[in-house]
Specification:
By secondary structure, this protein is α+β, with helices and mostly antiparallel strands. It is 44% helix and 11% strand. The strands form six sheets. Strands 3-8-7 form a three-stranded antiparallel sheet, with no helix packed on it. Strands 10-11-12 form a three-stranded antiparallel sheet. The longest helix has 28 residues, at 416-443. The chain is globular, with a radius of gyration of 26 Å. The N and C termini lie far apart (69 Å). Keywords: Methyltransferase, S-adenosyl-L-methionine, Transferase. InterPro entries: Rubisco_LSMT_subst-bd, Rubisco_LSMT_subst-bd_sf, SET_dom, SET_dom_sf, SET_MeTrfase, SETD3_SETD6_MTase, SETD4_SET.
């Protein structure tokens, strides 16, 4: 027998191509999923489920894929949307409820009830491959959330409040469904169940716009759960085109990069930093080119003179012009927005409203926001402010750059501490790189 043929040869080839360590395509739940999708018109054989050492479950190419080629075409009949919900047993309850429920709540309620129905649900083959829990901060212990850097911690706490408030506000609607599940509806539609459904929608839907309907709130109805397609993992370096094709009535993804046979196929969830990926999807990406360290207003205020009588006005100008969001340090130094905010805060009392006739009669603060030079003293003091902020963020005492090894040993069962540590380690590296950039600029 030719040693390059047969199962052994195929295993060696896959190892050389550096991808899959296991093929879950033959696992019972995936066999059922593919059979179910085939019954709904799905015929694509270009991708195959697999397990990868770095990303876990995903999809690999079953053949060579070329740039511009459609890698998946999912029929509308496979998509789970609010149309699905309205055509189900929930439809009359949603249409008759006032005030209207949101499209998000409609989808979440349907997911929970269909999961409860089990084998009676026509969506069971899809529901069986969904995660039983998620790694988004809404699933975390409160103590673990407190270890996050301040900016992302505030957003994580807001996420947790959002889900809790959604559950509280939805309870009267849930009780209206009692005729469907007499005496047990509140045992089915619990906070834990809604949290699972909320994360399912938040992490796994694709964009598919629906017309506004009176039975829903004015919140955009753009969610579509896409079985099988949602197994594609994220990579910041890939380019794809993804949209619902109105002619073919399929959701299609077209790759802009080439794949060899047996390589993992990726999509890009968006140009997100790791804070956003952690909040929205429950993971961080290694070597993320979009990663940065956020600076809060409270951090900046520690280094701005409280004797500045114009300070309140300066903050108002920054807020009115959108310069209090996304103030960051990156590997290449402070962001332009952070530098600009610091330059405005460092304007002297005589400079803030001074007319700059050489610049279209703009006052100096407008000139700063437009990115123009004001004075050498302003550049000098603003750069000093930026250096102080960077130094402060690098100190262990401010909540960055320290490790949580002791907490990991005490709470070894908490896998989310690993995510926190990875985020903090990367922040420390970014701040060190930014400090080096600032030092070099100071030497010039």
């Amino acid at each position: 027998m030719n040693p390059k043929r047969g199962r052994t040869g195929r295993r060696r080839k896959k190892k050389v191509l550096g991808t899959s360590t296991g093929n879950p395509s033959h696992e019972r739940q995936y066999v059922r999923l593919m059979r179910w999708m085939k019954e709904r018109g799905f015929r694509d054989k270009r991708l195959r489920t697999a397990h990868f050492p770095d990303t876990g479950r995903g999809l690999m190419s079953a053949q060579r894929l070329q740039p511009g080629e459609i890698i998946i075409s999912l029929p509308e009949s496979c998509l789970l949307t609010t149309d699905t919900v309205l055509s189900s047993y929930l439809g009359k309850y949603i249409r008759g409820w006032r005030p209207p429920v949101s499209p998000l709540l409609a989808l979440c309620t349907f997911l929970v009830l269909e999961r409860y129905l089990g084998a009676q649900s026509p969506w069971q083959p899809y529901l069986d491959v969904l995660p039983r829990a998620y790694d988004c901060p809404v699933y975390w212990e409160a103590d673990t959330v407190n270890f996050l850097p301040d900016p992302v911690k505030q957003k994580a706490m807001k996420q947790r409040r959002t889900v809790q408030e959604l559950f509280s506000s939805a309870r009267p609607f849930f009780r209206s469904l009692n005729p469907l599940f007499p005496d047990i509806v509140e045992e089915i539609l619990t906070y834990e169940a809604l949290r699972w459904a909320w994360c399912t929608v938040n992490t796994r839907t694709v964009y598919k716009k629906h017309a506004q309907r009176e039975c829903f709130t004015a919140e955009p109805d753009v969610y579509a759960l896409a079985p099988y397609l949602d197994l594609l993992n994220h990579s910041a370096g890939v380019q794809v085109e993804a949209a619902f094709n109105e002619k073919s009535r399929c959701y299609e993804i077209r790759t802009m990069v080439q794949y060899k046979k047996f390589q993992q196929v990726f999509i890009c969830y968006g140009h997100h930093d790791n804070q956003r990926l952690l909040l929205e999807y429950g993971f961080t990406a290694a070597n993320n080119p979009h990663q940065s360290v956020y600076v809060t207003k409270d951090t900046i205020l520690q280094f701005v003179s409280i004797n500045d009588k114009q300070l309140q006005k300066k903050w108002s100008l920054l807020k009115e012009n959108g310069f209090l969001e996304n103030l960051t340090f990156g590997r290449d130094g402070p962001s332009w927005r952070l530098l600009t905010a610091c330059r405005l805060l460092c304007l002297g009392a005589d400079e803030l409203y001074e007319m700059c006739f050489v610049f279209n009669h703009h006052t100096c603060w407008k000139k700063v926001l437009l990115g123009s030079f004001v004075s050498e003293s302003n550049d000098r003091t603003s750069m000093e402010l930026v250096r102080k902020i960077c130094l402060h963020c690098r100190r262990p005492g401010c909540g960055r750059g320290y490790w949580i090894s002791s907490q990991k040993s005490e709470k070894s069962a908490d896998p989310h501490l690993v995510l926190v540590e990875a985020l903090r380690r990367e922040e420390s590296e970014i701040l060190t790189s930014s400090a080096d950039v600032l030092q070099k600029e100071d030497a010039i």
